[in-house]
Task: structure prediction
Amino acid sequence: MDQTLGNFIKALRNSEVRVSSMEAVDAHHVVDLVGYRDRDMLKNSLALVLPKTPEEKAIYDYTFDRFFEFRKLDEQGADQLDDTFSAENIVPSLSDELGEGAMGEGGGGGGQGCAVQGGGEGEGIPDITDAVETADKNTELQLSSLSRMLLSGDRNALALAMAEAGDAVGVRNIRIFTQKGLFSRRIMEHMGLKALNNDVNSLKKKANPDTKELAERLRKGRNYLMQQVRDYVEQQFMLHADVDGSQLREEVLSQVRLTNIERRDFRQVQIMVHKMAKRLIALHSRRRKIYNRGQLDIRKTMAKNHAYDGVPFDVRWKAVKVDRPKVIAICDVSGSVATVANFMLMFLYSLNEVMPNVRSFAFSARLGEVTDLFAEGNVEDAMTKTLHEWGQGSTDYGQSLNDFADIALNDIDSRTTVIMLGDARSNYGDPGSEIMKKIYDRAKWVMWLNPEEKNTWNYADSVMRKFTPYCHQVQVCNSLFHLERIVSSVLRSAS
Amino acid sequence: MTVAKTSFDTDGRMDSIDKIHAGFEELGYITSAQIATSIYLARHLAKPLLVEGPPGVGKTELAVATAKFLDLPLVRMQCYEGLDESKALYEWKYGKQLLYTQILRETLGEVLQGAKGLGESMDRLHQFSDVFFSEQFVEERPLLKALRAESGSVLLIDELDKADQEFEAFLLELLSDYQITIPEIGTVKAKVPPVVFLTSNNTRELSDALKRRCLHLYIPFPGTELENKIIAARVPDVSETLRKELVAFVQELRSQDLKKLPAVSETIDWARTLVLLHATTLSQDMVRDTLNVILKFQDDIETVEAELTTLTNEALKSASLPAGAS
Result:
């Protein structure tokens, strides 16, 4: 198996392009056919096999460019690193600033040091610039191979050594960003940081001004190397780990209380809501009919077989059509409940495909319909407007339910699911439970979602107990995880 | 590893991507590098090609051009809701079966003559059991036709997203093995695997199982340069200045917030319209009068009319710039 392609596919999977093993096999066929010679052709070809949606294509383009990034090599380096494509070589191009001041001298002779094959300590380096050699003699000090490499300014060898060290310490297994420092350190150590430090220290101790300068050069070289290693690790992290990190984050976010989610995570949560919605759509868009095999639909069978002289060749069975649910969401948008309302409405409207008939109402002191605001698309704007318009004043359940009865009570029928979201804290006012009863009587299903934990219900001004008798289902709802389960149950109950 | 090859060899026409590119250009279909590569791979990997993209970018046209390019018959199947096996694959010719049983009634009598009892009659009948469910009574529908074509064919399954999910599943056998199983006859395997195109307008997500079996090509709206080439190939009568201007205008339109963005087919229609009207350069009045060719919603037309001056001026400006400068 082609290791490079395998790594590339792994990187793609990490960036959330779903590549099945069958597609991976196809990709190998493609590479067999077109080869690695022509980069554009390879990109175009793999683009047909691996990503299968427009979004995935965009990710693919980005990943491909990063993965198969060419390093500009000088002539001598080129034949040494013939398989430029291999993942090991996507080290950041060692920029020309390498020669900054101190390294200038050594950099001049860099080309000659290309024979170095890797970062293995003690390997012979045939030609180092005269400057280094004289320095060597002057100080009567055996420099480590890493120091020699730094002094000679051989970027290819450095890059190669870095990649090898990276392999050796398993930088591909990097998972979360806090590991970056660890891996940088490990790579440095594997490349011979200790010996380098020793060199610097012992050079510094000598009184000779030449060696002092050499020590200074080495020190700068070390800093430069650290920067390079950090970049390298950073890049490996982007390619191999980002997703595992975000997967972890998603897992955490789906469990955390919605009211505690920080503003900076909102976008992430929004993306997650969309993902969850997509999953639910995939799950529920399919079963639209349930066939009762065994129960003959006589009318349809007769109609179908009319052409065959009424001989029932083609038998039709009775089927139950699964209705698209009609959902009415009534949300308390005061205080802490607002965040939960926000995400729930976001969720409901992301399900447009399988739940086209969602009406939403928002209230605190008074109630109003906000369906149009949310149906238009931009949920963030809609929420801001909703809060501005209906989120003022102290919560009054009685008044709000009255308002609701005026607007929409007559629209509730036996196919409607009513989702009520609120903490049932009516500031000691009339909770309006008699209207709740009317809703309960008319609707197919009434669900009360309370963002508070169960043990605080009915505490202080919470009047949950007055509403509970008029709900088919009462549930705590304060995380994405809850939301998904609830919405899924709404979709299921529609059958 | 050996790549399965379709056995019809097209005298080297499919050898390289450049040849495909040139060949399609002769037929008036301008391919981007991505599209040419997709045809090349579809042929050499013998895999179906799923083409997605906004309406009017030439998805169907691609299959038609490929059929012409390869000199193969095009079998087209338009999908719609409720499409089923009997319309897509095969059907028994019921009328013919009925007619034959009537005509053969006497023969049947002869066959059964002398048979003692029901059991023996049945046994005799069983010897002829499948006579009425044989090849002669099969009505070929597009899929079967494409599989049975002697020298191969180009099969176009158009707008697959319009068909039901079940139909998609039904296609899987055809797409992965180029064969189809008919219970009464057995498995029909393609003599020469057809070149299969599936198109979708993305009205719904196609299943992963289907996508896995196909190469996936997404055709976006073309860029200025490519669209210029397309118009030049399809409407050769249009003058160069006008062509550049109208392409620039359409490109400008696509960046607007419209219900339905104009596609390539609309640009082509518009170019033809302007040629008929003997236009040599784009003028505001001309654009206003012909706006209904490129925009298909009254709302869109109203939105654009309000900004017609700016749009036209910008189009004229960017068209007069040398290529690549914008």
